[in-house]
Write a structure and sequence with these properties.
14 helices
Length: 340
């Protein structure tokens, strides 16, 4: 994979700029609306990266990743609202619970392979959605979900004037997720993950237990998804059944493909782009000027999923490898011209 010697300094500069920008109210990022939008986008970018560890780096097509994300949202919200533990301990318990659930689901699902594996993970994910939708033990609030009790969390996360703290929390969660997955994928275990993706039989010939490494990838991604579930609870202010829907996992798959699988920054970029574009498209359809568009045009455009689906199709057709793949191809062409 091509590396640019200035990439790390530029990344550090970008992070510093993103962290400092909310402090200046004259800048666009000084506005609470954009801070909230980007905070949610950062969470989705990090969540897409956890899915990329499964799909892009290990080659496991799971359709139940939303289950661990929703577990982080609901477990932390229930623990906080019922004053069982403090908010920070609730976050830790929710993260661990998601990891344990991922270990149990992974142990059962990895007995199968291929499309059967994908369907089994989908079944577990749908079971989780049904549980929260049916108001399990009168704890999940059913279809209405449960609102986070603002009295039991730090007040710097509450109110429009404090949106920048939610923004910083989401950015920190993204950085932590990226660093953990960078460490994992650059380790010896990460190399085994890549080998499993490329040719599992060769790994078996080497005498390695492929199931254990697959399960390890499953647990790491599920645990990080649970942590991000707590951050989403802070950003959204409630736990809702939509976080457990299978459409969440499908959206994560689209994010990874759009950004580029097997590249960490590509998955993050795809997640941020998908989330930001979805929000902006919804805002666009609410404007008065949009109502003057003929129904046969405005109707389809009013569905962000349609436009994002078209973007996905174009990327698959004309930019295999996603946005990151297109970037690396352009760099290769530039280098070829330079040395020719």
């Amino acid at each position: 994979m091509l590396r640019w010697k200035y990439s790390r300094p530029l990344l550090a500069a970008l992070l510093v700029a993103l962290a400092l920008a909310p402090m200046f109210t004259s800048l666009p990022l000084g506005k609470p609306g954009l801070q909230q939008t980007l905070a949610v986008a950062f969470i989705w970018g990090a969540l897409a990266l956890t899915y990329d560890l499964l799909f892009g780096f290990t080659g496991l097509l799971s359709f139940g990743h939303a289950l661990y994300f929703a577990t982080g949202v609901y477990v932390s919200c229930i623990l906080i609202n019922h004053e069982i533990v403090s908010w920070w301990l609730a976050a830790i318990i929710a993260t661990v619970a998601s990891g344990v659930l991922a270990a149990l689901v992974g142990a059962a699902s990895l007995r199968t392979t291929g499309i059967t594996f994908a369907m089994v993970t989908l079944a577990f994910g749908e079971a989780g959605h049904v549980i929260v939708g049916r108001n399990f033990f009168n704890l999940t609030g059913g279809e209405n979900g449960i609102a986070l009790n603002a009295d039991f969390v730090p007040q710097f996360w509450i109110g429009v004037v404090n949106t920048k703290y939610i923004y910083w929390t989401a950015l920190l969660a993204l950085i932590i997720t990226y660093l953990v997955i960078w460490w994992v994928t650059e380790s010896s275990a990460g190399r085994v993950f890549a080998a499993l993706r490329d040719n599992e039989q060769r790994v078996q010939v080497l005498g390695l237990d492929t199931q254990k490494f697959k399960l390890l990838s499953f647990v790491i991604s599920g645990t990080l998804a649970g942590m991000l579930g707590f951050v989403m609870l802070i950003a959204a202010g409630s736990a809702a059944p939509r976080f457990a829907e299978s459409s969440v996992t499908i959206a994560l798959l689209l994010m990874v493909v759009i950004g580029g699988a097997v590249t960490r920054w590509g998955a993050v970029l795809g997640g941020i782009f998908y989330s930001f574009a979805s929000t902006r498209m919804q805002d666009l359809t609410q404007q008065e000027s949009f109502k003057s568009i003929p129904e046969w045009i405005g109707g389809p455009i009013a569905e962000p999923a349609l436009l994002l689906g078209l973007i996905f199709i174009f990327i698959v057709m004309f930019a295999p490898g996603g946005l990151s793949g297109a970037y690396y191809r352009l760099r290769m062409k530039a280098l070829a011209r330079k040395h020719s």
